[in-house]
Design goal:
The strands form 2 sheets. Strands 3-2-1-4-5-6-9 form a 7-stranded parallel sheet, sandwiched between helices. A 3-stranded mixed sheet has the order 7-8-10. It has one domain: Rossmann fold (3-Layer(aba) Sandwich). The chain contains 12 helices and 10 strands. The protein is an alpha/beta fold. The N and C termini lie far apart (45 Å). The structure holds NADP nicotinamide-adenine-dinucleotide phosphate.
């Protein structure tokens, strides 16, 4: 479909900022939702485009939260909903993570139906954890992806650890969105994007001041010392620039309507992060642990996550792990105070 103005929630986020840059580059106008005018002003200063503006919506989970923002922009024809808590240290799982994610999603969709019926496409940033638990996604034999759901219950997400809260927030927010479409018959069609772990450089160096959870995980490699164990992190990855492009492809391609698109480039182990940094940033070669440098066929025998919708519809030529990690670490080192 053609669209000239795109509204994006969570505009300050790691992935959202790349989506904004790519949208502007493609000629779209962008309205970004932020939580405060100081955040909006800071973002506008980075974005530096007369085709970008922002709207303040402080609290996602308040009923009608997006009514005014959307009523002020009748020119918007696409809504990308990325805003959701990405925190692994909530004080209260339900209050801090589950309710903003789930009710925030329901409010966005209700506002669109009520005050912005001209919006024809809604893209929801879900997550691979909506399709399987962290443990399942880490399991070489796990079969799932675009057709599966994380088995977690709402009660487990409320009473479990921070990971359980995040898993539940993504699963139940995405399910709430599909339920809304089924029951409310809105004029828009929905596409859910399910990224795996998203890494890579920030859209703006100001983002380096407070890294989001996943880029911090990679940045932590620079703190490792010779005798430290290699962190036992193993999963699937996608570059943030590819994850952003997927959100745009999802509304540009009509065939993505009504589908879940799981975006993944491949598997990684934290050993790969260490190997890449030791190879490409020789000043760290002596400081970092060696571990067991990974061979070429490290992931032979692993089941590929089910991503056929994304592969067929988006046709992204995914960025490989060496470039993802090198670009992120180089940006950090180049901008160290
Ligand atoms: P991020 O940089 O932490 O961005 C999160 C965005 O959501 C920010 O704009 C943040 O606003 C907003 N937000 C967080 N909690 C909120 C709340 N309670 N009320 C209102 N707004 C809130 O994280 P990200 O990695 O870009 O994540 C963006 C989306 O991608 C999320 O939906 C996340 O679940 C999904 N995702 C991320 C990954 C990954 O590996 N990073 C993987 C799969 C899916 P402030 O800046 O004001 O805090």
């Amino acid at each position: 479909m053609t669209a000239s103005t795109v509204f994006i929630s969570g505009a300050t986020g790691f992935i959202a900022q790349h989506i904004i840059l790519q949208l502007l580059k493609k000629g779209y106008n962008v309205v970004g939702q932020v939580r405060s005018s100081s955040k909006g002003d800071a973002l506008a200063k980075d974005v530096k485009s007369s085709r970008f503006s922002y709207e303040v919506v402080e609290v996602l989970e308040k009923e009608g939260a997006f009514d005014n923002a959307l009523a002020s922009h009748p020119e918007v024809s696409v809504f990308i909903h990325t805003a959701s808590p990405v925190t692994f240290s909530p004080e209260d799982n339900e209050r801090d993570v589950l309710i903003p994610a789930i009710n925030g999603t329901k409010n966005v969709l209700a506002s669109i139906k009520k005050v912005a019926p001209q919006i024809k496409r809604v893209i929801l940033t879900s997550s691979a954890v909506a399709s399987g638990s962290f443990a399942e996604l880490q399991d070489p034999k796990f079969i799932g992806g675009e057709d599966s759901w994380n088995p977690i219950t709402y009660e487990q997400a409320v009473s479990g650890d921070a990971v359980a809260a995040y898993e539940g927030s993504k699963k139940f927010a995405e399910q709430a969105a599909w339920d809304f479409v089924k029951k409310e018959h809105p004029k828009f069609s929905l596409t859910a994007i399910l990224p795996v772990y998203v890494f890579g450089p920030q859209a703006f160096v100001s983002g380096l001041k407070s890294l989001n959870e996943t880029t911090q995980l990679i940045a932590n490699v620079l703190q490792l010392k010779k005798d430290d164990p290699i962190p036992p992190v193993e999963n699937s990855y996608v570059d943030v620039r590819d994850a952003a492009a997927a959100h745009i492809g999802a509304f540009e391609k009509d065939s993505a309507a009504g589908k879940r698109l799981l975006v993944t480039s491949g598997r990684f182990h934290y050993q790969n992060v260490v190997d890449i940094v030791r190879e490409n940033f020789p000043q760290y070669a002596d400081q970092l642990p060696i571990g067991t440098p990974a061979g070429k066929n490290q992931f032979a025998g692993y089941t590929k996550l089910e991503d056929s919708n994304a592969t067929q519809i988006l046709g992204i030529d995914y960025i490989g792990f060496k470039k993802v990690i090198s670009d992120e670490i180089k940006q950090i080192l180049d901008n160290q105070a």
